[in-house]
Design goal:
By secondary structure, the chain is α+β, with helices and mostly antiparallel strands. The chain has 14 helices and 7 strands. It comes from Caenimonas koreensis DSM 17982.
Length: 391
C-alpha cells in the first residue's frame, strides 16, 4: 500500500511532464495530476497503511485506486480522442486494475469509472473530435479483449488461492492426525505407571500417570479441533435435528478443562430449549472453539476464574433459537470485532492459527444462522448464535 502511495505521489507529476513536455499529447491537465498525486498521501499515512486489511484501509485503497485508474484513465482517453498513446494506457490500466483487486470489484469499477468520466466529459470536456467509425470499433475491440483477459486471469488467480487454502487446511488436518501416534504411546506409558503403582503403591507414579492421561486427553481434544477446522471448506450436509440444550450440556461435560476451578467457572443457563437442523459433531466443535477462546480470555484477565465468569445459555422465541457464550475476560477491541471471523486472523498473535471462529461462522451459516460478537474491552465478550428453530 505504501508502494502504491509513493508511486501515485511521484508518478503523476512525472507523467504530466512526459505527456505535456517531452511527448506532448492533445490534452493534459496539471491541476488534475497534482490532485491525483496528493491522494497518494492517504495511502502513505500511518493510520491507513498500518493495517491494510482493516475496513478503513480497504475503503481508502479502493477509492484512491478507482479515482486514479478507471476514472482518470477514462477521462484522459476521451479528452485525447482515443489516440494510440491513451489506448495503450487504457489497456495497461485495465490489466493492472484486475490484478490489484477482485475481478468483480474491478469490473464494476471500470464500468462506473468510464460512465462517470463520460458524463463529465459531455459537460466539461475539451472540444475534440469524437471517437467514431473504424477508430471506435478498433479501440472497442482492444479494450474488450483486455477486459476479458483481465477477468479471466483474475478469476484464475482467485481459484488458485482457493486451491492453496484447501491444500493448507488439508495439510493441517494430516499433521494433526499424525500426532495421535505418539499420544497413544504416552497413554500406554501412563497405563504402565498406573499398573506399577497398583503392585507397589507409589503416590508419585499415580500422580504422573494421572497427568499423562490428562495431557493425552487434552491433546486429543486439540487434534479433534484442528481436524474439524481443517474441514472449513468441505463441510458435510446437515441431516440431524439437534437439541440446543443437549448440545450445550454434552459439550461442557466432555470439554477437557485444565482444572476443577476452570470447570466450576462455567454456568449453564437454559431458559427454553429448541431444535435446529445441523450436525451434533460440528456444532459441538463450534461451542468447543467458543469455550476455548472464553477460557483463554479469562486466564488473561485474572489469575483465578470464579463461578459465573463463563455463562453458556440457550433461549428461544418467535421461531428462532439462540445460544450465547458470555465471559468476563479481556474483551475484543472494536477494530477487531469486524475481522475476528476472517480465516487466519487471530487476536492472539503467535498462539493461534485464526481458523476457529472462521470455522464457527461457516458451520452456522450452513445452518442458515448467524453469529455475532458484543464486547467492551476489559468487560468481557458475548458471542451470540441465532438459528432457525424447527417447528
Amino acid at each position: 500500500m505504501k508502494g502504491l502511495g509513493l508511486f501515485t505521489l511521484l508518478g503523476h507529476p512525472l507523467f504530466w511532464f512526459i505527456w505535456a513536455v517531452w511527448l506532448p499529447q492533445p490534452y493534459e491537465n496539471l491541476p488534475l495530476r497534482i490532485f491525483t498525486a496528493l491522494t497518494g498521501l492517504l495511502l502513505l499515512s500511518e493510520r491507513i497503511s498500518r493495517d491494510p486489511t482493516s475496513k478503513l484501509s480497504g475503503a481508502v485503497f479502493t477509492g484512491v485506486l478507482w479515482f486514479e485508474s478507471p476514472f482518470l484513465f477514462s477521462w484522459m482517453y476521451l479528452c485525447n480522442g482515443g489516440n494510440q498513446a491513451w489506448l495503450a494506457s487504457m489497456a495497461a490500466m485495465i490489466l493492472a486494475y484486475y490484478f490489484a483487486t477482485d475481478w468483480r470489484l474491478a469490473t464494476i469499477g471500470i464500468a462506473t469509472g468510464a460512465l462517470v468520466a463520460r458524463v463529465l466529459f459531455a459537460f466539461w470536456g475539451p472540444d475534440v473530435a469524437p471517437i467514431t467509425g473504424e477508430l471506435f470499433w478498433v479501440n472497442t475491440m482492444v479494450l474488450a479483449f483486455c477486459i476479458s483477459m483481465g477477468m479471466l486471469l483474475s478469476v484464475s488467480s482467485a481459484n488458485l488461492r482457493r486451491e492453496h487454502l484447501a491444500n493448507t487446511l488439508a495439510t493441517m488436518g494430516i499433521m494433526a492426525h499424525e500426532l495421535r501416534t505418539p499420544l497413544a504411546t504416552m497413554s500406554l506409558i501412563g497405563d504402565a505407571l498406573r499398573g506399577t503403582a497398583t503392585n507397589t503403591p507409589d503416590p508419585m507414579h499415580v500422580q504422573l500417570a494421572t497427568r499423562l492421561h490428562t495431557l493425552v486427553r487434552n491433546m486429543n481434544h486439540q487434534i479433534d479441533s484442528q481436524i474439524a477446522n481443517a474441514r472449513l471448506m468441505h463441510l458435510p450436509g446437515y441431516t440431524e435435528a439437534v437439541s440446543a440444550a443437549d448440545l450445550v450440556r454434552e459439550t461442557v461435560t466432555s470439554y477437557p478443562f485444565k482444572s476443577s476451578r476452570e470447570r466450576d467457572s462455567v454456568t449453564l443457563a437454559v431458559a427454553q430449549d429448541f431444535r435446529f437442523l445441523g450436525l451434533q459433531s460440528l456444532f459441538k466443535q463450534v461451542l468447543d472453539n467458543l469455550i476455548k477462546n472464553a477460557l483463554r480470555s479469562l486466564a488473561a484477565a485474572s489469575n483465578a476464574s470464579q463461578p459465573g465468569d463463563l455463562v453458556i445459555g440457550v433461549e428461544s422465541s418467535g421461531g428462532r433459537g439462540r445460544i450465547f457464550v458470555t465471559d468476563k475476560g479481556m474483551g475484543v477491541e472494536p477494530q477487531m470485532q469486524t475481522r475476528i471471523f476472517e480465516p487466519f486472523f487471530s487476536t492472539y498473535s503467535g498462539t493461534g492459527h485464526g481458523l476457529g471462529l472462521a470455522f464457527c461462522q461457516q458451520v452456522i451459516r450452513n445452518a442458515h444462522g448467524t453469529i455475532r460478537v458484543r464486547s467492551e474491552v476489559g468487560r468481557g465478550a458475548t458471542f451470540v448464535i441465532d438459528l432457525p428453530a424447527l417447528g
